[in-house]
């Protein structure tokens, strides 16, 4: 007797032919190769990550070193530009290329740190609300509603004014303010997963609630968590840049892109590169994060949304 093949792999067409279906991994890889947004976003994020990792090698000068005799040197494409400072210098004579390169590291550290705090809070609240429902769901929904009623930037500004601006304060304040989207997404996904047969089987086998949440539900939320995490990183970087631009975020002389834009706004009419260069870097990173997150959502969706 011939051994029957899995129906997900081979199907008898009835005419002496067999149809071989691709595995889920092959389907996802095929969608990734065809998704232009995912490719562009992945390249942008990867390049930014490499620049941040190799910042000491790529930066030609110390990003904190000041030389007033070389202040406001234009980039190399201007007539007065020099290749010793390819992107010019700022109003304190600091090399702009070095500050932009180290700004990648600052933005990624802040973005990932805020994302970890926000996703941890949102995931915990979302799983509890989606699995238990009832009173727990009502409490979590109330907290989400309260949080959405409070503008994140204004609350973060108030916290920074009361405590003082620093990288740690910005990370903690924003991390505790942008968890609502993760909570809503994870809650909805948990409500769908808890009705699955494998969850009912684990309950019938006498597994504890903690074990069910950690081994049956949480692993099946991985796709949603990755998408939410990438989107929250971009949002966190943008919010940090806004706070730094207002002087309430990362403090000088840290090379934050938002702070660089704030420092250059006084000279924007005569030296526009002081704003356009860090602004372009910020735009590319945030756009890349959003394209990457949206692309991951598309290629992992069962319906193969494009």
Which terms would index this structure?
306 residues; two-stranded antiparallel sheet; mainly alpha; 13 helices; disordered N terminus; MetI-like fold; 2% strand
Characterization of the model:
The structure is a single chain. With 306 residues, the protein is mainly alpha-helical. The chain has a single domain (25-60, 97-300), classed as MetI-like fold (Orthogonal Bundle), CATH 1.10.3720.10. The protein has helices spanning 24-34, 36-53, 55-58, 96-132, 134-149, 152-163, 167-175, 180-193, 197-204, 209-217, 222-245, 257-264, 273-300; strands at 10-12, 18-20. The protein has a two-stranded antiparallel ribbon. β1 (10-12) and β2 form a beta hairpin. α9 (197-204) packs antiparallel against α10 (209-217). The radius of gyration is 25 Å and the shape is elongated.
Helix/strand order, N-terminal first: EEHHHHHHHHHHHHH
Q: How would you name the CATH homologous superfamily?
A: MetI-like
Secondary-structure class: mainly alpha
Please describe the biggest sheet, giving its number of strands, its sense, and whether it closes into a barrel.
2 strands, antiparallel
Q: Quick check: average pLDDT?
A: 85
Straight-line N-to-C gap: 44 Å
C-alpha Rg, in Å? 25 Å
CATH class: Mainly Alpha
The fraction of residues in strands falls at under 5%
Low-confidence stretches: 1-13
Number of helices: 13
Fraction of residues in helix: 55-70%
Tell me the domain tally.
Answer: 1
CATH architectural designation = Orthogonal Bundle
Provide the CATH topology.
MetI-like fold
Shape: elongated
The main sheet orders its strands as 1-2
DSSP strand tally: 2
């Amino acid at each position: 007797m011939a051994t029957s093949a899995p129906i997900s792999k081979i199907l008898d067409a009835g005419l002496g032919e067999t149809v071989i279906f691709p595995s889920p991994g092959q389907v996802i890889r095929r969608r990734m190769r065809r998704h232009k947004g995912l490719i562009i976003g992945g390249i942008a994020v990867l390049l930014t990550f490499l620049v941040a990792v190799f910042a000491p090698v790529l930066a030609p000068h110390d990003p904190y070193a000041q030389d007033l005799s070389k202040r406001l040197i234009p980039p190399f494409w201007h007539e007065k530009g020099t290749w010793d400072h390819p992107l010019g210098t700022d109003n304190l004579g600091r090399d702009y290329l070095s500050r932009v390169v180290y700004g990648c590291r600052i933005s990624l550290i802040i973005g990932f740190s805020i994302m970890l705090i926000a996703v941890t809070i949102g995931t915990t609240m979302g799983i509890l609300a989606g699995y238990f429902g009832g009173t727990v769901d009502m409490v979590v929904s109330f907290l989400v509603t309260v949080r959405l009623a409070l503008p994140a930037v204004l609350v973060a500004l108030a916290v920074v004014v009361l405590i003082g601006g620093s990288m740690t304060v910005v990370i903690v304040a924003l991390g505790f303010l942008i968890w609502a989207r993760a909570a809503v997404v994870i809650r909805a996904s948990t409500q769908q997963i808890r009705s699955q047969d494998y969850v009912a089987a684990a309950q019938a086998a006498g597994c504890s609630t903690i074990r069910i949440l950690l081994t049956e539900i949480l692993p099946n939320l991985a796709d949603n968590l990755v998408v939410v995490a990438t989107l929250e990183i971009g949002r966190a970087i943008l919010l940090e840049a806004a706070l730094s631009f207002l002087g309430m975020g990362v403090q000088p002389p840290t090379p934050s892109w938002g702070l660089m834009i704030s420092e250059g706004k006084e000279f924007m009419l005569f030296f526009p590169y002081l704003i356009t260069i860090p602004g372009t870097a910020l735009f590319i990173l945030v756009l890349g994060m959003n394209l990457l997150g949206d692309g991951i959502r598309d290629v992992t969706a069962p319906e193969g949304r494009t």
